[in-house]
């Protein structure tokens, strides 16, 4: 099993879309039943990308509070990605879940193993933006952390905070690998292009060699509740995600 944590220090960078679409791209390459996604974001939005319209009153939050494994909330879909939603939860449920996670640093990793997702598979974990107990849990069980950035001043400004997190976590988890990826790259926009070049210079080989171009098909695919590779398989974003998926599979197997 390989676990990939998808993180960011700010919202609005398309992190959940990257998680869903990258999972779909990896599933295309690895085959049905080999890729799962876990939604650790209380917004509970990840399942929409896979056509799972039910708001899901049950998910990993309440399932964990009951002391039950996550197999009961694992949802299959036509895109061959197993989805474990956060689930609809009250504020008190969320607070109790976060307290549980704070008390047991490897809770998420243990639940992944209990659910049987560790059998020759890849698990992607979507986390809420910023520092949180969810981010700590992702770092604790991940083999690779993918940090999503936009080519804008806001994302650039978050890098020192993320670097601080990475330094702290590397002491606790020396095997952990991390890589930044640029999302919604628009080379036709001069400012976007300049910031992308600046990030390349600043991050060097810590920036994934494949970025994801700005493509309206990504938001259109979400409106139709499907991954962009299903909605527009020959589009620019689909091409980028397929290449990024292949690169990440190769990186995990090194």
Structure write-up:
By secondary structure, the protein is of the alpha/beta class. The protein has a single domain, classed as 3-Layer(aba) Sandwich (Rossmann fold). Helices cover 45% and strands 15% of the residues. It is built from ten helices and seven strands. The longest helix is centred in the middle third of the chain and has 20 residues. The radius of gyration is 17 Å and the shape is globular.
Short description:
With 254 residues, this protein is an alpha/beta fold. Helices cover 45% and strands 15% of the residues. The chain has one domain: 3-Layer(aba) Sandwich (Rossmann fold), CATH 3.40.50.300.
Write the layout of secondary structure elements.
Elements: E1 2-7, H1 15-30, E2 35-39, H2 60-65, E3 81-84, H3 91-103, H4 107-114, E4 122-126, H5 133-141, E5 144-150, H6 153-172, E6 177-185, H7 190-203, E7 212-213, H8 216-223, H9 228-231, H10 236-252
Parallel strand pairs: 1-4, 1-5, 2-3, 2-4, 5-6, 6-7
Helix pairs in contact: 1-10
What keywords describe this structure?
single chain, seven-stranded parallel sheet, 254 residues, alpha/beta, Rossmann fold, 10 helices
Which stretches are low in confidence, meaning pLDDT under 50 for 5 or more residues running? Answer: none
CATH superfamily: P-loop containing nucleotide triphosphate hydrolases
State the end-to-end distance: 14 Å
Quickly count the helices.
Answer: 10
Number of domains: 1
